[in-house]
Input
Amino acid sequence: MNATERLKTQFEQALVTAFGSELAGTDPMLVPASNPKFGDYQSNIALALAKRLGQPPRAIAEQIIQHLDIPECQLPTVAGPGFINLALKPSYLETQLVAMQADFRLGVPLTKRPKRVVVDFSSPNIAKEMHVGHLRSTIIGDCLARILEFQGHDVLRLNHLGDWGTQFGMLIAYLREAHPEALTTSNALDLGDLVTLYRQAKQRFDQDETFQETARREVVKLQMGEPTTYQAWQLLCEQSRREFQRIYDLLEIHLVERGESFYNPLLPAVVEELERSGLLVEDQGAKCVFLEGFTNRQGEPQPLIIQKTDGGYNYATTDLAALRYRIQQDQADWIIYITDAGQANHFAQVFQVAQRARWIPDQVRVIHVSFGLVLGEGGRKLKTRSGDTIRLQELLDEAIARARADLETRLQEEGREETEQFKEHVAHVVGIGAVKYADLSQNRTSNYVFSYDKMLALQGNTAPYMIYAYVRVQGISRKGQINFEQLAQQTQIHLQKDVELVLAKHLLQLSEVLDQVATELLPNRLCQYLFELSQKFNQFYDRCPVLTVPEPLQTSRLALCDLTARTLKLGLSLLGIEVLDRM
Ligand code: ARG
Output
């Protein structure tokens, strides 16, 4: 139980003692105080109960506080028309901080109910470029997976690669005519070529009927596992996979690949099962399920096509097979899908069909975590200067190059010499960290404008600002020759000044914030927490001398520094961002 929950329980008990068992289970409406002047928590329950109890709110509040005996808090007070204010005792905060410092998990408990969680993220398509939408999915998915893993859940990170479908027939048919060598030798093409080829193949397909026939025959051959076609498909996949891997390496992201092709053998069973459950309807030769709550322009129920007239399957069919597999074979308790908001209907439809077919047991949660678009400056689609779509590799390289340039300027201004290795490392950590942080710090449901200048700024809610706060603490330990690890064993904490209390309270919220992020699946809350932590730390550090004060205050303040650094490091690592000792 965290501090807020404990306070709530104690408050509930006081309500019952004051007014009898009718009030058992009443929510005390405890919220963080709007103004630190009023303490740490505030409750409006007295106002809410006035009518029911037939007493003035202030009188109710007075009775409640007479029965409130919360060891963690100072004497409660009543303000205004009947607000109850609670303030935590400094001694309580001090004990909590000492415990937090001795704990390598910084007071964050492991979950008591570990779940098997599938996080389906990134999932680019073979022979197509991985675009900024996939980048968002990759960054958000990795972050949510990390947070759930840290809480002790058993997370399976799945890359639902788009590696199957009729487009492969078209692509292989085209390559057979235009670049036969690419079908038999690896490395003959890179993904850039593949993307161009894809465009050419599509053009050919749209114009030429005989070519369409050839392409269809290739699809059939692929489905039957005909060796040369199958090998060609594998080569195409390998080439794309290599490109994707470079991006994952740069971002340090690990995924288990389980593409759409994996579920191909399971698709007929989806049709059979739906048939058996009575949901499947033949409509103009296609097998479909009529959806509830989705209608076409004429107001008629919209069908979800499970199997096309030609026997082929759709994106949704594969997702139905995947959902079933993840529940039955992977034993997933939660399945979390991370894609742009444009796919919201797709998932709502897939979930509905699975629900109606009774494939989703009551305790299993399926969740679509959706996000907005990445826009260029000016609010339009993100493009290169020449108007082309941006390649992710270039976008990340550019972020690193700019971080490097900023660093060089700073080094020159400060008259510092650093090794090439140092510069490379700092540029990498800052550049990649900035891209990830810029994405995660936005509420994922909104669109955001991609700006190198903003994300790389040393001031503001950015990765460099946060990393710099960490570096600042490491500077203190270097300057004072302090070994923070030894500090942890025998610390006493004394909170004297307001800025210390403010910092202390913020530090102690870590566990609650992580719970919130895991419940709402909103990483920006963690970013906000870390940003405020850095600000509160900077205020503390500006006003409270550390290395020049006598003991026991010195150690106490060093402990606050250490706790801040460790919290930043942990928090950033959960966002997938590294820290630096110097920058
Ligand atoms: N490949 C898809 C795309 O690029 C994303 C797949 C998301 N996952 C899923 N199970 N449908 O849009």
Summary: The CA atoms of residues 52 and 188 lie 78 Å apart.
